[in-house]
Specification:
Elements: E1 21-31, E2 44-52, E3 55-61, E4 77-82, E5 88-95, E6 109-116, H1 117-123, E7 125-131, E8 137-150, E9 156-164, E10 177-184, E11 190-195, E12 210-213, H2 214-218, E13 225-232, E14 240-248, H3 249-252, H4 254-258, H5 265-274, E15 276-278, H6 282-287, E16 296-305, H7 310-315, H8 351-363, E17 372-376, E18 385-392, E19 404-412, E20 425-429
Antiparallel strand pairs: 1-4, 1-8, 2-3, 2-5, 5-6, 7-8, 9-12, 9-16, 10-11, 10-13, 13-14, 15-16, 17-20, 18-19
Length: about 425
């Protein structure tokens, strides 16, 4: 974590047959890293490399955490997961110097590990030892990688937090607070969701708004327990604990109901009470008789943005209407010639009709209209005959077992304009 500590949060081609692709979030933490610095501890950063055609290239990297040999990185690394592909990954840990630049000296390299995305996804949580060059172990250093699939309809949240009257942990100045959010998993473990930026010398901090996916925050479970921690930042990595509290997403959503209340002074005050938590230091609570809290943390704004999948739109009533535009050009030849794409074969459909069948059979399931509209834009260059293929789809008629097709053959075009075009033709089949 740097002095200016950037806030980090998760919120980062189709062709041929549809691939089995999913969005995956990777979260990284390390333990017992090598100490490469003389006066302080290492300032680690993890770089994610992907192999493409035998070459390793950097895809993303985490934030830098100052003076910490057991870092838990807040930044989420997002990838596309393809089930049918072997996606080789390499995680490299570096001791960062200066403006987040990767050092070139051997002493800057703290270790690395290679694996595939499939291995991480299959295990969900993978722990591996870090290796130096030539396969040597980097002491007892390990890296832990958590994988989580992001579904298309989870959506994401935009949250704004502030605090009031936090405890002052510094002797000659005020605290430098930052906020951490942890999700409590089913097995009781804690997963870091977000870490805010540091607000210098301020007991009433207002942190920058941030975005987080619903599945990252609470696994789409409104009542999943969430843990909030407030710290006083220390550049040496020894942050002072200010306090903590527990809540869940269901309780956080009370601000949405409160926002509907009229904006009278009393109503505004009531709104803040609904989304305010006491920040408690358990040690102070046991030792001090008159202890109340170590400050208040306030959820000042919550915006829920739903990200809908294609299936959500279909199930919500979205209709797909089939519209076709065909450019009938003379370059394809006479439709009476078997070599022409326009050839009217009495035994099987031509290429145009095959395309209409392939697309139309898919689209018909998502169109409640009985009529199918076909727009044809016809261009004719010194060609007075047009072969036109059209199709009629049996949409919701369960009595019709197969789709019926018509072929209108060799229509004579008489109203050809001077530029060789006919007006667009719209045909409705009932």
């Amino acid at each position: 974590m740097s002095d200016s500590q950037d806030a980090t949060s998760p919120v980062a081609g189709i062709g041929g047959p549809v691939a089995c692709v999913s969005k995956v979030e990777l979260r990284v933490c390390c333990k017992s890293l090598l100490d490469r610095d003389t006066l302080n501890k290492s300032d680690p950063c993890v770089m994610l490399m992907v192999q493409n055609q035998g070459q390793w290239t950097e895809l993303d990297r985490t934030e830098v955490i100052k003076s910490n040999l057991n870092p838990v990185f807040a930044k989420v690394l997002m990838l596309d997961y393809y089930f049918e592909e072997v996606q080789k990954l390499r995680f490299e840990v570096y001791d960062i110097h200066g403006a987040h630049s990767i050092g070139t000296r051997d002493d800057d390299f703290l270790g690395g590990v290679e694996c595939t995305l499939g291995q991480i996804v299959a295990q969900k949580k993978m722990v591996k030892p870090l290796l130096l060059k030539y396969g040597k172990y980097a002491g007892k250093s390990t890296i832990t990688i958590h994988a989580e699939e992001i579904s298309g309809n989870n959506g994401y949240l935009e949250l704004s937090f502030c605090a009031k009257k936090l405890d002052d942990k510094d002797l000659f100045s005020k605290s430098d607070p930052f906020l951490e959010i942890y999700r409590i998993n089913d097995d009781g473990t804690e997963q870091l969701v977000h870490r805010t930026e540091v607000i210098k010398n301020n007991l009433n901090p207002v942190w920058e708004p941030f975005k987080v996916s619903l599945i990252s925050l609470c696994s789409c479970d409104d009542e999943r327990k969430l843990k909030f921690l407030v710290w006083d930042y220390d550049s040496r990595g020894k942050h002072d604990f200010i306090g903590e509290f527990y809540t869940n997403f269901k309780e956080m959503q009370k601000i949405s109901s409160a926002n509907k209340v009229s904006v009278r002074p009393s109503a505004i005050h009531w709104l803040f009470l609904k989304v305010t938590w006491e920040c408690i230091n358990p040690k102070y609570k046991l030792k001090k008789k008159n202890y109340k809290n170590s400050g208040l943390v306030i959820l000042s704004d919550l915006k829920l943005h739903r990200v809908y999948s294609f299936l959500d739109y279909i199930m919500g009533g979205c209709q797909i209407h089939f519209t076709v535009a065909i450019d009938f050009t003379a370059s394809n030849g006479d439709p009476r010639n078997s070599c022409s794409l326009h050839y009217i074969n009495p035994y099987q459909p031509n290429e145009y009709l095959k395309a209409l069948i392939a697309v139309g059979e898919i689209c018909q399931d998502y169109d409640r209209l009985v009529l199918m509209e076909v727009d044809t834009i016809m261009q004719v260059c010194n060609f007075s005959y047009l072969e036109f293929s059209a199709c009629r789809m049996s949409l919701f008629d369960s009595n019709v077992e197969s789709t019926t097709f018509w072929t209108l053959s060799l229509l004579s075009l008489r109203n050809i304009s001077s530029k060789g075009f006919v007006r667009p033709l719209t045909i409705l089949f009932g």
